[in-house]
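Title: [Solved] Regulatory protein, TetR 3D structure

Original question kept below for reference.
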Amino acid sequence: MARMNKPSTEMRQHILEVARALMTAKGYTAVGLAEVLSNAGVPKGSFYYYFKSKEEFGAALLEEYFGEYLARVTPILEGQAKASDCLAAYFAHWIETQGADIPQQKCLVVKLGPEVCDLSEAMRLVLDRGTVRIVSLIARCIERGIEDKSIQTACDSSMLAQALYQLWLGASLQAKLQMSTKAFDAAVQATQTLVR
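Solution (posted by the thread starter after getting help):
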């Protein structure tokens, strides 16, 4: 690939975008820095100008992912519709993005989480903080639904949000294993049972 001539912050962002596409397809450990830099058009020796280590690079990649993900789903979960409709729209978005072959929107928690948690404490912490933020956003939607009476549940909103997020992460993993979106059908039914 041709060498890129971009300002430092743009080049750093470009490297992260290229790496995300590669790692979404192959995983973290299967993608070497040389492959990322070659695809980004960046000289091999200049990686450490942008990142102190591959671990810092991986943490930055995950931070970027969570920032983009939350920017995309916050308007869905905090929409003007009834909270139950917002929650349903969020999980419809989940199916749309995780069921399709759109590498830029694939869930990096599912793809990289199990792989990197044992390799890097810094990356594990980014994953943990990011998922806590997502669960909190879901919990706020559930609380709003209890208030507007569009959601009926005997569960604590935080506990229910955690259970739903775990359910959907599991459905995403099962969909990958089965190469089918059928796992999402079961997740929808379970969600409708838990959130009436």
